[in-house]
Amino acid sequence: MCAHQLVTSTNLNMKNLYKIILPLLLLVNIGCEKGDEHYYNYNTEAPVYDGTIYEYLQSQTGVYDSLLLVLDRLPDLRSKLRNADSSYTLFAVTNRSFDIALEALNTTRSLTGRPNLYLEDVGLVDLDSMTNRYVIMEEFDTEQLSPFIDGQLVTSTKNNYKMHIQYRVLDASGFVGGGQQQLIFSDTNNSIFQRYWQRVNTSVVNVRTKNGIVHILSAGHDFGFSKFTSKYSTQ
What we know:
Blueprint lengths: L2 H42 L8 H7 L5 H9 L1 H8 L5 E5 L2 H17 L12 H9 L2 E3 L4 H4 L6 E4 L6 E8 L11 E7 L10 E12 L2 E6 L9 H6 L3
Parallel strand pairs: 1-7
Antiparallel strand pairs: 1-2, 3-4, 4-5, 5-6, 6-7
């Protein structure tokens, strides 16, 4: 092969190699950008709502209808969440969590020939106690909770009941501990032994309102930490 042909062949090979490598480099660069943005969004961007906790719940159409119905039956708790001069942390329970609790309750009741119960029917004393456990005195966001490796015991707005919050960061996008911030919210069941605690994870954290912080619980949570079924299954 002559020198001219060798140079031409080399140039063609380099051009073909460049055509293969360039898209790969672009994909890697885009992937890194997406990963960095993913990390940034999870860790630094906190939603802010210009209203109270109660108004925030009202603004989320189709998400908190059941919780709002319960709050209408519990005017003292509703007033707290509407008071712009107060300061609370709400672990918000979605419609699906109430659906899970009601389905479990009415399945149990049907086995003993009892009629179905709904949120409008259940007794107020226990409903009030269970709902207040999701509302914590004072504001607790992830920045405040992150230094406490073992989490913190916190006080709910009823009967000085103790709940527990623990902070963690999931792994994602090639980062160890670089993914979604999450809180583990636990009903301590009045016990110091964690084996008796019942836990639920958050799906969204740090929604800031005029009178506190809202953390949104996983939709798979059973409202009342399974106590809803046991309280009303035989009444």
